[in-house]
Amino acid sequence: HAAQSTAALTREYGSSAFWRVLEEWAHSPDAPNDASLVRWAGDAGIRVDPAKLTGDSIAEKQVAEDRALGIRFGVRSTPTLYLNGALIEGFHSRGELHRAIQSELSATRSLVAAGVEPNALYSTRVKKNLIDVGEAIPQRVCPALLDAPVLGKSDALVTIVEFSDFECAYCEKVQPTLKQLRARYGDDLRLVWKHLPLGVHERARPAATLAIEAQKQLGDAGFWKVHDALFANQADLSDAALLKIGTDAGLPATVMEAVRGDTRRPRVEADIREADRVGAKGTPTFYVNGRLLEGAQPLAKFDELVSAELKVARRLVSGGTPRQEVYDTVCGRP
Questions:
Q1: pTM for this predicted structure
Q2: How many other β-carbons are positioned within 10 Å of the β-carbon of residue 107?
Q3: Which of 55, 133, 141, 239 is buried most deeply by CB count within 10 Å?
Q4: Domain identity same for 47 and 18
Q5: For 64-84, what is each residue's pLDDT tens digit?
Q6: How many domains does the chain have?
């Protein structure tokens, strides 16, 4: 009955009335019935005639058609959402819905970059999401960059975010590949580091603390100098070795007080939380303009992703997107 009454309310008073009443309903402990709908409408500033909520045959037909449509598409319970045709069943947290929307936004922006007209975006995505027709659009989960150390220009077209651990052998193994990528793509590529020291690596956190101190005291250039030295000396990350790496980079010997005291724990923990948010479970984990690449992959794997993302980025730039806004644009951020 509530469905028919709200359908009648919408027919009589418009869509905005429906959403305003729904907002009042969401904050009320009362069950929906004609009396409560009239009261919620009044609270929303809408004067409703109770007689308008009953006996509306067109509203009854609309509800029946909606039920039939739900059955046709396999809706089995409520709430069930279709986000541009992508099925989302059951309750989801605000954060989960936000990530789903951001992912869909990035997909539609990729279509715009490929030349799809804005008025065709919905139908194009519904065809892909609902009936699997059309080109697959890359799924993106974009880490927040914040004040993470960056190697490369701020207007680079492709951003690789690396979640890594200075004691991880595979993290060290992939470093030459990243250097090759930087040499190949130059100013079009930037690297961003996020700390993800694994619990099995006893010296990963002290090494991370030293690297953070280097960034704080010497800037990003200092961080990358210490970064290179830590991987070059990965076999020995003792306090004595960290002291030498730090002083060779230009840090004072007192930096070891911060290392021993774990004073940069909040920064490390923030990166770990971000890793959890985007789904990075191990090291190294990379996000190439938000596209996931796990492990110490060969150059060809990185090259495939970077090349594809460069094409998308260049189309965006040619369409008027400033270079420095490409990362946020492909990630679906305003």
A1: 0.71
A2: 23
A3: 141
A4: yes
A5: 999 998 888 888 899 999 999
A6: 3
